[in-house]
Amino acid sequence: MCPVRQDKSTMSVFAWTDELEKREAARRSMSREDARPFLASRLGLLPGTIENIVRKRVKEPKGQVIDAIRNAFIRELESEIRRCEHEIHMAVQSGSHPHSDEIAQAQTLIAQARELIGK
Question: How confident is the model at residue 114 (pLDDT cuts 50, 70, 90)?
Fold first, then answer.
């Protein structure tokens, strides 16, 4: 088997695709294999392309494929940031102390997500 190229963007696309597939499966309450066509449709790719990337059957995905996956991953993180911000807002509104463990954990997740997407 050929070794996978070790540059940052190529290595990341494998992790991004894997995470997107996991989230799609969880969102739809189905197996990853069953969720793959839905993810592929959302990304404008073929299910086989997603499978090949997840199983690392490709050395280097094409630029257009990387862009589609990266953009979907960024949208997913932005959505996660909004959810965490909403949870913090609701916790504070319901009387939770602003320095509670749950709020601190949510703020940490927001900071990590923003760092990943460069915001």
Answer: confident
> Which tokens go with 103?
């709020």
Domains in the chain: boundaries: 8-117
Q: How far apart are CA 89 and CA 56, in angstroms?
A: 40
Q: Greatest CA span in the chain, whole angstroms?
A: 57
Q: In 3D, which of 65, 77, 75, 73 has the Cα closest to residue 10? A: 65
Buried b (16+ CB within 10 A) or exposed e, 60-87: ebeeebbebbbebbbebbeeebeebeeb
- Measure the CA angle with vertex 68, ends 83 and 86; round to 5°: 5
pLDDT in tens, 36-49: 999 999 999 999 99
In this prediction, residue 108 has a pLDDT band, given cuts at 50, 70 and 90, of: confident
Distances (CA, A) of 44 to 26, 32, 106: 20, 18, 32
